Amino acid sequence: MAFRRLRPEVLKAGIVLLSAAITLMPATVATAAEGNPNYLGILSSTPPTGFTPSPSIYSLAQGQNTLTFDLVVTNLTSETKSMNLELDLDHITTYPINGVPTDISDGQPGVVNGVIVDGQFNEMLATEVQDPNPTIIPFSIGPNETKTLHFTRTLAAGHCGYFQVDVAKQGLTSQKGLAGFEIRVLGCGAPSISTTAAPTTGVVGDPIHDSATVTSTISPTGTVSFSLFGPGDSSCATDLVSGNASFKNIALVAGSATSPNFTTAQAGTYNWIARYNGDVNNAPVASACGAEAVVIQPTTPGIRTTASPTTAAVGALIHDSATLSGGASPTGTITFSLFGPGDTTCATNLVAGAGGFINVPLSGLSATSANYATTQVGTYNWIATYNGDSNNNPVSSNCGDEAVVIQKATPSIATVAVPTTGPVGTVISDTAAVSGGFSPTGTVTFRLFGPGDSTCAGASLVSGAGFVNVPLSGLSASSGGFHTTVAGTYNWVATYNGDANNNAVSSHCGDEAVVISKPLGGQGCTPGFWKNPKHFSLWTGVTPGQSVGSVFSVPATFPDGSSGSTLASATLADGLAFQGGSDLNGAAQILLRAAIAGVLNANNPNVAYSLTASQIISSVNSALASGDRNTILNLATQIDNANNGQAGCPLS
Q1: What is the dihedral of CA 183, 187, 188, 193, to 10 degrees?
Q2: Roughly how many angstroms between the first and final C-alpha of the chain, as a whole number?
Q3: Of 346, 475, 491, 485, which is closest to residue 404 (Cα–Cα)?
């Protein structure tokens, strides 16, 4: 603080004659009003007491425009002193902030915060409006007397801002006085509130909020509290957010505040009321009930559906599921409708009124229909309809949203060839049984592929009646008989030809092999016949360029540890020309020459040979493994005799 017209440091000079004091109510700033230890060489003062009220530092609150304080003064002379004291309240209108004269006439808190502290002004820098009506107090004090002076000053209504308070001898107000301090008078704002509800219309479940803007002659600070009143509460009696602190005491930012969102739960008219709670300069003010109506309509939830399955074979069971989303906690039921193939506009409900499809209760937010067994190939369409409740409108999925494509069924086919083995001349047949599918009807066609056609790529050996389009009897059909004429492996393939609801299906080549063996006999062809290149075309099962070791097991140490490897790596055609010899190696050559011819005789379907290929290979492998020359030569003689059979060689 400072006394009138003098800087604070100047005011501390002088001779102490009289002391006075001004004592404020508890404050948070370490400054105080000052007395004067030497006033006019007559009086001294110490800080006063009794300054009331003081709800803020050096301040008078809203509606409290009377300043009262006491000064304790002491006459330090031995004479009675009399004078008129003058109480001045000069209005401080501007003060330099950062070198710029700034209007602080309204005394709004914080105007000079950070630059100067409220109540600490250098009066020499301030611009003031002099007190037009100073208070004059006659004063007399006896020799060495101490007395308390009581001062009261009422400011006119509407007077706000910072004031310099000085007590001095009348006529001597331009110099250091008896006491001085600053006060701030608050509460002269004239606030008003404007509000905006958003949105003003919506559906149940929509979030709504309110915004308020406060304006005043003195910039408003503080908070706004929002209240919301539900449908039917036209007098705004019950605040729906009374216990929700997030809606109360929301700080103004640039003069505005916005409530949090409130999620509506009923259809009807809601009303907001926004109340500005006031500050030291501005009284509370509120919007009116009915000024901010928000009309909430029933909501329409979303519906999401899932057909299961979306593709299947005829006869499959299909169903639909529906799940709601949004809305206002929807309850109630869902009705499922199903429309069959060809009904692209969803005109004829296949399950109308059927249990499990009509009014299926929601579980949570979902419902599932019963199963429906399909009976036609084509596209089915589901429609799911939520039937609504008090807060939610009905809603349906669309025709075509849930297409289920039903395709032909694919049955299974099982076949049994009769017999599966036999000699040349055996009559063979096939039987097919159809299972699964969708009540299959129709016919089965049988095909037969002969020896050498292992991929069933050639022409079928059978055709016509008894084999083509044989009608099903029940779910089975049997072919006619086929008289075999050639040894080897035959393969049946049976094909179910399908019908309107079932796809065609076939057994696989190789599933039904029938092995027809040639009769054993006394025929045979010699190594010399088989080594002739013009007879290579008659080789069956092996080829001339194939190695000896690929058919027979020639021991790695055979023979003699020297030349055995040449026997295994030689071609079968070369083996037919082995010369033999007197050693073990020669014996092996004799055996292998006879054995190669024997395998060719056994493999050829037109040679009635007395041995099988497997018998020959097994015996040769054992003899070679024995390493015994006699064993090897004895087996060579047996095979050679078979190659020169009594019935001769039937090939040419």
Answers
A1: 150
A2: 143
A3: 346
The helix/strand/coil state of 539 is: coil
Looking at this protein, which amino acid is placed at residue 598? G
Q: Please name every residue paired with 228 in a beta bridge, in sequence order, or none if there are none.
A: 272
DSSP string computed for 593-608: HHHHHHHHHHH-TT--
Query: Hey, how many other C-beta atoms are within 10 angstroms of the C-beta on 174?
Result: 10
* 54 CA to centre of own chain: 60
- The answer to whether the CB of 591 falls within 8 A of the CB of 635 is yes
Alpha-carbon distance of 67 to 181, in angstroms, equals 12
Q: 154's torsion region: left (phi>0), alpha (psi -120 to 50) or beta? A: beta
- How confident is the model over 474-506, as pLDDT tens digits? 999 999 999 998 888 999 999 999 998 999 999
Tokens of 104: 């602080």
Quickly list DSSP for 165-219. Answer: EEEEETT-TTS--SEEEEEEE------EEEEEEE-SEEETT-EEEEEEEEE-SS-
pLDDT, tens digit (0-9, with 9 covering 90-100), for 311-348 = 999 999 999 999 999 888 999 999 999 999 999 999 99
- Please tell me the distance from the alpha carbon of residue 509 to that of residue 486, in angstroms, as a whole number: 19
- Distance between CA 282 and CA 219 in Å, rounded? 9
Query: Does residue 159 sit in helix, strand or coil?
Result: coil
| CA 254 to chain centroid | 39
How far apart are the C-alpha atoms of 548 and 593, rounded to whole Å? Answer: 10
Instruction: Supply 108's token pair.
Output: 């709004």
Q: Measure the CA–CA gap between 482 and 428, rounded to whole angstroms.
A: 5
Tokens 């009608």 appear where? 471
Distance of CA 538 to the CA centre of its chain: 72
Calculate Rg over the CA atoms of the chain.
60
427-455: pLDDT as tens digits: 999 999 999 999 999 999 999 999 999 99
